Amino acid sequence: MTSIDLHGMGVALITPFKEDESVDYEALIRMIDHLVENGTDYIVALGTTAETPSLSEEEKKEITRIVVERVNHRIPVVLGIGGNCTRNVISQIEHTDFKGIDAILSVVPYYNKPSQEGIYQHFKAIVNASPRPIVLYNVPGRTGTNMTAATTLRLAREFSRIAAIKEASGNISQIDEIIKNKASGFQVISGDDGITLPLIVSGAVGVISVIGNAFPKEFSHMVRLALQRDYQNARNIHSRFTELFELLNVDGNPAGIKSVLNMMGLIKNKLRLPLVPARIITCEKIRDVLNQLNIKVK
After folding, report:
1. How far, in Å, are 86, 92, 176, 199 from residue 179 at the CA level?
2. 136: buried, middle or exposed (CB in 10 Å: 19+, 13-18, 0-12)?
3. Is the pLDDT of residue 2 over 70?
4. What is the C-alpha to C-alpha distance for residues 287 and 46, in angstroms, rounded to an integer?
């Protein structure tokens, strides 16, 4: 496989935990069914929202197995494989069973603060090792390093297996530059729910969403309307969630979305240290917004 269509709404799947902080695999299955049955276009497993740095290798393998088996080819599955040691990322790729996996999401190396040439060489090595298309992931707020538009375009131009970028820099000018100068087959994906609509207007193909964990039907509908250039109706849905976009990030991701999912009865409100649940005051504000949206909460 050398290409993948990532138009629409992908969801950055959360990892549910039990009270003892073990992975709640039953809740994970519920979440997968909830997403697949309510309009999600593809699932991204083991991304940022999954608290992947806090998972053991055994847990990551089991989560991947369950996602692949439960999705059962109904929609594409994108697997997060990234890190700040290129050799380790390549080793992970070499030891991964890619049956049922349609693409890899790989983050810009963090903490090391590589140069743009270092970022280019990192992804070049990953492309040469990967049997699946690559989705680049630029999120400088977490990695400490921004991958510039020039580096993104260089990678996309030189490697056909690089299918897309999840752009979460929040830099609209940078994202516009990528969209303006990219090759026709390269896909730009919003990494931020709150700016998905304007990015689609500018030429992005969709979003890898956090809020979609809770509202896959509504948010996927908004994305599809925007892709069909029905901007007024898309804006009406977008406007319903603007306050929630902000609240979900007040205490960090995935604390916000896990509090929503807990209120909806889908998971326990449990995270692994160093992450902690959203504060009570934030949860109360979230509950008020959900009530205003006529969402049933417990």
Report:
1. 27, 31, 5, 9
2. buried
3. no
4. 27
* 274 cis-preceded (ω within 30 degrees of 0): yes
49-66: pLDDT as tens digits: 999 999 999 999 999 999
- Give the separation between CA 298 and CA 292, rounded to whole angstroms: 14
pLDDT over threshold 90, residue 278: yes
Q: Are 132 and 1 in contact, with CB atoms under 8 Å apart?
A: yes
Give the DSSP per-residue string, 117-180: HHHHHHHHHHHHH-SS-EEEEE-HHHHS-PPPHHHHHHHHHH-TTEEEEEE-S--HHHHHHHHH
CB burial of 243-259 (b: ≥16 within 10 Å; e: otherwise) equals ebbebbbebebbbbbbb
Global pTM reads 0.96
Distance separating alpha carbons of residues 246 and 265, to the nearest angstrom: 22
Report the pLDDT value the prediction gives residue 282, as an integer from 0 to 100. 98
Q: Which amino acid is at 256?
A: G
Q: What are phi and psi of 137, to 5 degrees?
A: -135, 110
Map residue 204 onto helix, strand or coil.
coil
Segment (H or E) for 138: strand 134-138
* Catalytically active residues, by annotation: 137, 166
- pLDDT tens-place string over residues 267-276: 999 999 999 9
Angle 14-68-210 (CA atoms, 0-180°, nearest 5)? 25
